[in-house]
Design brief:
single chain; alpha/beta; Rossmann fold; 6-stranded parallel sheet
């Protein structure tokens, strides 16, 4: 079986709304707080119709920091999987000091998914809302999309595309795939 392209997504701020406090985005504290962003379900459905694996790669350092439980993160991930056509969710539960290979900006989560789902990273896409998402996608060889937010630290990265939201990124991805 030949490898295929996929679309990777950050979770918070891309698929669901974040809460920004003091300029820093925070994930939902519970499933009850999860709000899928407008147009996300429809955009993912269009991408899924193309047969693309849709893979979430998310840093959840609040688990290592003790301010969130792994069970809550897993429940939120499952909540999103139940409502959106996602293939898989890969989560890093570490903090920066753990120096793991899975925490973005390192590409470990993308490499894991590529192996599990026979993904050609050079033909794949990553959509994120922070510089670390873009850096991970670039390190893996993906074409990158940055959803520009006040907290993106966009000066720290040079994405292939800057977009306002996931639906805009999805349209550009569909156009790029149409060129193949």
């Amino acid at each position: 079986m030949s490898s295929r392209p996929a679309v990777f997504f950050d979770r918070d701020g891309v698929l669901n709304r974040t809460t920004v406090r003091n300029g820093v985005p925070h994930p939902p504290d519970s499933v009850d707080q999860v709000e899928v962003l407008p147009g996300v379900a429809e955009a993912l459905a269009e991408l899924a119709q193309r047969g693309l694996p849709l893979v979430v790669v998310t840093n959840q350092p609040d688990v290592a920091r003790g301010t969130q439980t792994r069970e809550t993160v897993d429940r939120i991930n499952q909540f999103l999987c139940d409502r959106l056509p996602l293939t898989a969710v890969y989560t890093c539960y570490h903090d920066s000091a753990d120096n793991c290979s899975c925490r973005k900006p390192r590409p470990g989560l993308l490499w894991q998914a590529a192996t599990a789902y026979n993904i050609d990273l050079k033909r794949s896409f990553l959509v994120g809302d922070r510089w670390s998402d873009v850096a991970a996608g670039q390190a893996a060889g993906c074409e990158t999309f940055l959803i520009e937010q006040t907290y993106s630290e966009s000066e720290r990265c040079t994405p292939d595309h800057r977009v306002r939201d996931l639906p805009e990124a999805a349209q550009l991805i569909l156009e790029r795939l149409g060129e193949d």
